[in-house]
Every structure is written in C-alpha cells, then in structure tokens.
Amino acid sequence: ETGVTQSPTHLIKTRGQQVTLRCSSQSGHNTVSWYQQALGQGPQFIFQYYREEENGRGNFPPRFSGLQFPNYSSELNVNALELDDSALYLCASGKQGAYSEAFFGQGTRLTVV
Amino acid sequence: AQTVTQSQPEMSVQEAETVTLSCTYDTSESDYYLFWYKQPPSRQMILVIRQEAYKQQNATENRFSVNFQKAAKSFSLKISDSQLGDAAMYFCAYRDTNAGKSTFGDGTTLTVKP
Asked: What is the pLDDT of residues B100-114, one digit of tens each?
C-alpha cells in the first residue's frame, strides 16, 4: 500500500457530462500529479500541483482542470467528456524534488459512453 | 520533447531465472532521473528502482538492478531469481530536474512461468 487512495475506483459517464475524480495523499506530500493511462499504453502526464498551485501541464486541453487542497487531497475535473477520455486516471503524490519517489494511487477507471 | 521507448511489449521468464527489460530514451538534458515502475493487475504503480543520470554507478535494489548507459541513452532493468510475484507490467520513466513531469514508456508485460 502506498497510502494514496483514489475514488471512485470505477465510473461510467455519458459523453458531454462532467466528472470529478478524487485523490487523498499521505500527510506531508506537497505535490500531486495526475496521469491518464489509456488501455495498453503508459501513463500520460496531465498536470502537477505543488502547494495548491499548478506547477506543470502536459498536452491536455483546458477542459482538464485540477485542485489541490491543504488537507493533502486533490481533484481532477474533466468537462465536456469525450469518448477518448475513457482511461485509467492515476494520481501520484510525493515531496517536491525530481528524485523523490512518487506514490501512486490505484487509479479510477473512467468509461465514457 | 523527451520520449521513452520500450521495445518489448511482452517478455516471459522461467521462475528463478534472470530477465532483462529494455528501455531507451531521448533527451537533450544532461541531468535527469530514470525510474522503473511495476504495475500489477491491482493497477497500483510501485517504484522498483531509480537512477540519477549524473551517477555512473548502476542502481541496485535486492534482485533488481539496472544497466545505465548514458551515452547510448539506454536504461535496462535486470530481474534476477525471478519470482511469480514479479509478473506485472513494467514501465520505464524519465523525469527532468524540474520534477514537474514524468514521461513513461508504453510498458513491458512480464510473465513468470512456474
């Protein structure tokens, strides 16, 4: 166990809807990153938050947004869902520093129909 | 942009034997970090081993070791005395020094045969 939990574990949404995914990190972790993992592929970086501010973003449109809270929890919000958004969404938390270990949650499997 | 390539979609190994998973990457940076992660069917990504690019010595963690060839931009993972519990998807990842982003390969599925 990594101490990072994500909810829900599975979710089915309809195209055009909005979704919020949640991640609860370990105490003391001041960074959280979100990744999208399509079936059979490696995780793709969406963005990172450090001390509640966005601190880097991958090649994802603005309808992907996030929040990080002082209580070590975070959210990934996706608006106007598209079929291609169907994937496993992973959050990873840790302490700031490139060599720091990132602790991953078990992911949320999102299916858009 | 950095890229990570894992050229072996699937590998298999007999229990107790040794297997090597390949990874190459492309970057113009001189300082960076490399990681191997294991993702079992439970989906939770677990760090296996990590390497700092400025360290020439290859990292080792128990049965897991790497062969880091900086000039060739190669970072392979060797698993010795393979165990059934090693069966999983293995991902190679690159992270630059600003720590904002990790770039992953597409993974290698490792099967361990009893």
From this structure: 688 999 999 999 999
